[in-house]
Amino acid sequence: MSYPQKKLIKDIDPNEVQKFKESFDNNITKVLTEVDEGYEESITRWADNSIRKAGIVVQATCLDDIVKTVNFANKNNLDFAVCCGGHSTSGSSSSEGGIVLNMRKLNKVRVDTGKKLIYAQGGALFGEVDSEAWKYGLATVGGIVHHTGIGGLSLGGGFGYLTSKHGLTVDNIMGATIVTADGEVRELSANKNEELFWAIRGCGINFGVVYEFIFKAHEQKEIVVGLLAFPAEKLDSAVEATNTWLRNRGIDENITFIINRLPPENKPTIKLVLFSNDPSEQVFRKKFSIIYECGEPIFEKVERMPYPKLNMLLDESSNYGIRKAVLSAQVDHFNISSVREAYDSFVNFTNEHPEATYSFIAIDLIDGKKIASIPSDSTAFHPRKQFYNIAIIQRWNTKHYDKIVYNWGKNVQSIFNKDGDKSLYVNFMDTTTEHVYKNEEMLKNVWGKNYEKLKELKRKYDPNVLFRKGAVIFP
Ligand SMILES: Cc1cc2nc3c(=O)[nH]c(=O)nc-3n(C[C@H](O)[C@H](O)[C@H](O)COP(=O)(O)OP(=O)(O)OC[C@H]3O[C@@H](n4cnc5c(N)ncnc54)[C@H](O)[C@@H]3O)c2cc1C
Predict the structure, then answer these.
(1) Does ligand 1 lie within 6 Å of residue 82's CB atom?
(2) 430: CA distance to ligand 1 center in Å?
(3) Residue 428's pLDDT is what?
(4) pLDDT over 70 at 21, yes or no
(5) What sequence ranges are listed for the domain FAD-binding PCMH-type (predicted)?
(6) Does the CB atom of residue 159 touch ligand 1 within 6 A?
(7) HEC states along the chain?
(8) Atom number, ligand 1, closest to the C-alpha of residue 210
(9) Is the pLDDT score of 437 beyond 80?
(10) Residue that is last in its domain, among 79, 102, 125
(11) I need a labelling partner for 418 at 20 to 30 A (CA). Which of 63, 187, 264, 324 fits?
């Protein structure tokens, strides 16, 4: 089946464009073109390689702005993108010459403490959700970097430090208000528009623009976090100690195991983020005593802190700018020989290509029991099993290296794929172009048995594939 070719702003009647711009109150909602102040900022993204020169950017400030923009894009069959945190590296929240709905001004968050619900507009960042909820001693499941958008992260699955205890972000979505391709505003929940509610929890970017999410909030105390670095010679003993910890771990603790280079000398290093969901340092020391048996860390910082600060600890390695891509693998065990092979590959590659020095491999050892306790067909998110997520973060400077770095990322992915069933997490299969998503086999590795049902729903709610960015389902 073929779908209508997407048009650019320059392809449509300029009078139509002018009329569309004039339909907004310019004092409230900005509609920006290349010549306008604020345009460059509005197309900035986390990774430089995902910046595209949009024909028009609408900085939505209310629900009606979303409806108008969706209707305009649909009627004119425009290349259309939605941007929240702008963290996708493939450019899936950008458009070269088309129309972008920038959601960042829709970032209000409010908390209903009685019902323990968080209402967050679809342009908010997880840091904004964390801070508002924390005022009431509450938190929901977000990602581990505060400037990630709730839009993309929540719609693809979402995991973070609280996943072992409370599940995925999608498991904590209690409702949402979305605008579908036909311009309809629909409220979704377990008993309203159930099939769309099912679909947005794992495959959301295919079905509409989320104006507002409703998240379940949980009681949250202060926490203790340890940042430890060990020299490369300790790799084997650090993996062994981590595996011993894994055998007895609880749901209130986590380790993120990172292979990177430590500035300023940039020596290969093993970095561990130890998270204890308890305010006591004594409890922290007890939980992670086995890790300290590896020997003297070259760096150690243990701190009690409010929960929102936890998601700011990786700021240095996750800042804006330069070229970046993210690939992932899901493994069912923490295998020393794969970690060693990936480590050697990382060291050789970054020795050979110093401009990729600040790439890193992060192994997130979440406890998947909570994720696995929910059947795979109860939300669109499919890989409901015990798994550890490996994120291969590629960072470099020049376009010339795009393919070289991507091929290295694929190589590391294939090392870890031997320890899993090749399922993929849609939010971490984000490379420098959207090309990767054109492979249907890969999409089946993301949505598994839910893929056919998602195709049916796409046929029903977005038959002309208006939402055509990122991992697109073509019905
Ligand atoms: C530094 C960093 C840290 C990360 N950490 C984690 C983590 O801890 N856990 C995790 O699960 N993932 C994590 N990710 C992956 C992350 O989930 C994805 O990159 C996600 O797409 C980011 O969402 P965004 O809104 O920032 O991105 P954007 O680029 O703005 O959007 C990504 C996609 O979502 C769509 N979208 C955005 N907002 C909306 C909306 N309101 N309605 C409809 N569609 C929308 C866009 O159209 C686009 O297709 C991380 C990524 C980065 C770069």
Answers:
(1) yes
(2) 10
(3) 85
(4) yes
(5) 50-220
(6) yes
(7) CCCCCCECHHHCCHHHHHHHHHCCCCCCCEEECCCCCCHHHHHCCCCHHHCCCCCEEEECCCHHHHHHHHHHHHHCCECEEEECCCCCCCCCCCCCCCEEEECCCCCCEEEECCCCEEEEECCCEHHHHHHHHHCCCEECCCCCCCCCEHHHHHHHCCCCCCHHHHCCCHHHEEEEEEECCCCCEEEEECCECHHHHHHHHHHHHHCCEEEEEEEECEECCCEEEEEEEEEHHHHHHHHHHHHHHHHHCCCCEEEEEEEEEECCCCEEEEEEEEEECCCCHHHHHHHCHHHHCCCCCCEEEEEEECHHHHCCCCHHHHCCCCEEEEEEEEECCCCHHHHHHHHHHHHHHHHHCHHHCCCEEEEECCCCHHHHCCCCCCCCCCCCCCCEEEEEEEEECCHHHHHHHHHHHHHHHHHHHCCCCCCCCHHHCECCCHHHHHCHHHHHHHHHHHHHHHHHHHHHHCCCCCCCCCCCCCC
(8) 42
(9) no
(10) 102
(11) 324
Ligand 1: does its nearest atom lie under 6 Å from the Cβ of 148? yes
Mutate to test the pocket of ligand 1, among 61, 80, 87 (most ligand atoms within 8 A of CB): 87
Query: Is the confidence at residue 436, as pLDDT, over 70?
Result: no
* 435 in a structural domain: no
Residues 214 and 304 placed together within one structural domain of the fold: no
Q: Are residues 253 and 203 in the same domain?
A: no
* Ligand 1 contacts CB of residue 106 (under 6 A): no
Is 202 near ligand 1, meaning CB less than 6 Å away? Answer: no
pLDDT tens digits for range 298-308: 999 999 999 99
Out of 51, 67, 88, 196, give the residue to mutate to test ligand 1, the one with the largest number of ligand atoms within 8 Å of its CB.
Answer: 88
For the Cβ of 308 lying below 6 angstroms from any atom of ligand 1, the answer is no
Mean pLDDT of 222-238: 97
Residue nearest to atom 35 of ligand 1 (CA): 152
In a domain, 167, yes or no: yes
Residue 93 CB less than 6 A away from ligand 1: yes
Question: Are residues 413 and 273 part of one domain?
Answer: yes
Question: Do 245 and 205 lie in a common domain?
Answer: no
Q: How confident is the model at residue 424 (pLDDT cuts 50, 70, 90)?
A: confident
Per-residue pLDDT, averaged over 48-53, amounts to 96
Q: Establish if 95 belongs to a structural domain.
A: yes
Residue in 82, 90, 434 to alter for ligand 1 test, most ligand atoms within 8 A of Cβ: 82
The mean pLDDT of the chain is 95
Range of the domain at 36: 9-102
C-beta of 127 in contact with ligand 1 (< 6 A): no
132 and 185 inside one domain: yes
Report the percentage of the chain scoring pLDDT > 70. Answer: 98
Tally of domains in the chain: 3
In a domain, 128, yes or no: yes
Residues 410 and 284 both lie in one domain = yes
Looking at the fold, whether 40 and 143 belong to one and the same domain comes out as no
pLDDT score of 275 more than 70: yes
Indicate if ligand 1 lies below 6 Å from the C-beta of 145: yes
